[in-house]
Design brief:
This protein is an alpha/beta fold and 427 residues long. The chain folds into three domains: 11-154, P-loop containing nucleotide triphosphate hydrolases (Rossmann fold, 3-Layer(aba) Sandwich); 160-229, Helicase, Ruva Protein, domain 3, CATH 1.10.8.60; 242-328, Zinc Finger, Delta Prime, domain 3 (Up-down Bundle), CATH 1.20.272.10. The chain has 20 helices and seven strands. It has helices at 7-10, 23-26, 33-38, 54-65, 79-94, 113-125, 138-141, 144-147, 160-173, 188-194, 198-210, 221-229, 242-254, 258-270, 275-290, 296-311, 316-328, 335-350, 365-369, 408-420; strands spanning 44-47, 69-73, 102-106, 129-134, 151-154, 181-184, 216-219. Strands 2-3-4-1-5 form a five-stranded parallel beta sheet, with helices on both faces. Helix 10 packs across helix 11 and helix 13 (242-254) packs antiparallel against helix 14 (258-270). The longest helix has 16 residues, at 79-94. It is globular and about 80 Å long. 31% of the residues are buried.
Length: 427
């Protein structure tokens, strides 16, 4: 064991038995458990926040399945590096598809299209089994051709019990920490600062322990906050403050404060954050927090995302600033966000209800004979292009899911809906 390695690296699990959390994937009934045990490993992408065990799980899979393991980081690897690894993989048994080598690519979302294209043939031919790790939605960041050849598995942040168990393991198993007398009197501050990131938790914990000159140490929330404030880390786009800063940015826009919004935007830009990540979060916010209060916000945010993707830094900082301040100054509404949440909950509660016959499609003679589409009222044939008709299944008729917000644009929507559905919905 390398005693100079960070605590998180020293404690990295080597077996599934030692692997904490992600029981939905590798627990007794986990999606991946049987595949790993049988050595039938598909190419896959692990998607989850930093510090949730993506790299560790890839190593364990390779160990358990007894496959050669190659690793690249998308930050400092190019097409040549990929081809070199693929050549080595082919020579080490990649032609035998049941035990082909594993190529692990950290932060695969940072690979360009050409870099991802260079992986396609190797994955398709079975020369390698690809395991990619990403903190970003792979639907946006992994090219469709590659994504279609991979299974996507979501890793969740560690919960409180997982993180506390991790701290106990560190105290008991680490050669350096086990020589000290460490009492965990309070853990709330440690857990809050980690944000569910196991690596961050262990880094902070080691930093705090190292700051003591005595071997008898009592950890309290006060001690943690004092020690961390004295050793503040700068913005780390790979995870240390990534989620805290983007959260502050989004909340500032939601709270209609353009000054705070551009401050946090500047923090991210100066820290080297992926500009498309920032633009994408504003695109989501434009719908989630502004919505129909100002539909142009979504258009503005989408244009910003496209512009940032085309132009790049440093000019993109101006476009991002324009969009952030525009969104911050827009009226706010989460009515559309609330509506889809209520609708999904209703679907989960009521199941697959039948579509009313009158609004079903009738492409065949049999369907027409069965009454599909009978009594459907074509709205454009009626006054004001409106016909009073039921569009929901009978068992949930008259269920109001969309409730317009209190702002000029949605007030107009409310007035429109009230004039049409005054006997059906309470608007």
């Amino acid at each position: 064991m390398n005693t100079n390695a960070p605590l998180a690296e020293r404690l990295r699990p080597q077996t599934l038995e030692d692997y904490l959390s992600q029981t939905h994937l590798v627990g007794p009934n986990g999606t991946l458990t049987r595949q790993i045990e049988q050595g039938l490993i598909p190419s896959m992408v692990f998607w989850g926040p930093p510090g949730t065990g993506k790299t560790t799980l890839a190593h364990i899979i390779a160990n358990v399945s007894e496959r050669p393991f190659y690793a690249l980081s998308a930050i400092n690897s190019g097409v040549k590096d990929i081809r070199d690894v693929i050549d080595k993989a082919k020579q080490s048994g990649g032609l035998f598809t049941t035990r082909n080598p594993i190529l692990f690519i950290d932060e695969i979302h940072r690979f360009s299209k050409s870099q991802q294209d260079s992986l396609l043939q190797a994955v398709e031919k079975g020369w390698i089994t690809l395991i990619g790790a990403t903190t970003e939605n792979p639907s946006f960041e992994v090219i469709p051709a590659l994504l279609s050849r991979c299974q996507v598995y979501i890793l969740h942040p560690f919960d409180k019990s997982n993180l506390e168990e991790l701290l106990k393991r560190a105290i008991e198993r680490d050669d350096y920490l086990s020589q000290k007398t460490i009492t965990l009197k309070e853990t709330n501050a440690l857990l809050r600062l980690s944000g569910g990131d196991a690596r961050k938790l262990l880094n902070i914990f080691e930093l705090i322990i190292s700051s003591f000159t005595t071997d008898v140490i009592e950890i309290t929330d006060k001690v943690v906050l004092e020690k961390v404030q004295n050793n503040t880390v700068r913005y780390d786009k790979t995870g240390e403050q990534h989620y805290d800063i983007i959260s502050a940015f989004i909340k500032s826009i939601r709270g209609s404060d353009p000054n705070a919004a551009v401050y946090w935007l500047a923090r991210m830009i100066e820290g080297g954050e992926d500009l498309k990540f920032i633009a994408r979060r504003m695109l989501i916010l434009a719908s989630e927090d502004i919505g129909n209060a100002n539909p142009t916000a979504l258009v503005m945010a989408n244009s910003t995302f496209q512009a940032v993707s085309t132009i790049g830094y440093p000019e993109s900082r101006i476009i991002l600033s324009q969009c952030a301040t525009y969104l911050a100054c827009s009226p706010k509404s989460n009515a559309a966000y609330e509506a889809i949440g209520k609708a999904q909950q209703l679907v989960r509660e009521t199941g697959d209800l039948s579509v009313p016959l009158e609004i079903r499609n009738a492409p065949t003679k049999l369907m027409k004979e069965l009454g599909y589409g009978d009594n459907y009222k074509y709205a454009h044939h009626y006054e004001d292009h409106f016909a009073d008709q039921e569009f929901l299944p009978d068992s949930i008729s008259n269920t109001k899911l969309y409730d317009p917000g209190n702002n000029p644009r949605e007030d107009a929507q409310r007035h429109f809906l009230k004039s049409r559905w005054k006997d059906k919905y309470d608007y």
